[in-house]
Amino acid sequence: MFIAQELRNSNIAEYILYMWQVEDTIRAFGCSLSRIRREYIEKFDYTDEQKEEEADWFGNLLRMMNEEGCREKGHLQINKTTLQMLEDLHAQLLGSTKFPFYTSEYYKVLPYIVELRNRGANKEENEIETCFNSLYGMMMLRLQKKAISPDTAHAVKEITTLIGMLNDYYFKEKREGLKFED
Known about the structure:
Blueprint: H1 2-10, H2 12-28, H3 33-39, H4 48-68, H5 77-94, H6 100-119, H7 127-143, H8 150-176
């Protein structure tokens, strides 16, 4: 909860990846709040009050996962909504002539998005979700200390640049608003 709150206010892209990891963490503990408390939350250097807040947060996420039918796979609606906000902003940036650097980076990344989408199971997902899935996949490969090909590393580097730009525009839009037209 504490990490999620910080990321939500400082890096929306990392927030989404973190929340996906939290969903997988809940699944890894068999969707059992008592196991999450005992085997996960207890390992943090939190006060008893903080541990209780964290357990409540995990409990709420677990309840939502049950209600939304994503105990085994998929993402919570709150995470889908955040991702959709980024997809909407992405479309606005591409639809405007005022963001040529973003558009240029997008066209550099587009071949990777197309290739990833063609390889993936869900060919209907939007471009930003494809980018996030690749970033999350890379994160999982690194955590598992698996080999990453130079081509994959290059593709993810380009995707990271695009998502980093989108992240920056997201916060600029929140702070001061973006002017998409003259």
